[in-house]
Design brief:
Elements lengths: L2 H14 L3 E7 L9 E6 L3 H16 L7 E3 L6 E5 L3 E6 L1 H7 L1 H5 L3 E2 L5
Parallel strand pairs: 2-5
Antiparallel strand pairs: 1-2, 1-6, 3-4, 4-5
């Protein structure tokens, strides 16, 4: 599965259980570590954990195992690293504080981007 297909699968998995404000950051020109970052908000710690878990489960069904998962214990910000795609699921307060979209200063792509 290439990075574009993986990005779409991640977005679909987040949308499936009502992830909020999903954006994709194309960082290929800025990072040698990953191609895309997908940022999403959840409504509670439990929702953040569920969103990250759903992404993990759906991608694993396609035979891809994450390189790492961080933040599952607290649920304020869960990061799931698939190499070419890194997923950040955050509470709105954490997302506002860390402001990844501004930090990376790249155009935000809509969720219907494939």
């Amino acid at each position: 599965m290439d990075a574009e297909q993986l990005k779409k699968l991640v977005i679909d998995s987040l949308e499936e259980i009502k992830g909020r404000d999903i954006v994709t950051l194309d960082v290929r020109e800025m990072s040698g570590v990953t191609d895309f970052m997908v940022v999403c908000s959840g409504t509670s710690n439990r929702h953040v954990k569920s969103l990250a878990n759903n992404v993990w489960v759906e991608v694993k069904k396609r035979g891809i195992v994450p390189l790492g998962i961080e933040g599952e214990n607290t649920g304020d910000w869960v990061l799931v690293d698939f190499g070419d795609v890194v997923v950040h699921v955050m509470l709105p307060e954490a997302r506002l504080f860390y402001d990844l979209e501004r930090l990376w200063q790249v155009p935000v792509l809509g969720t219907d981007e494939s």
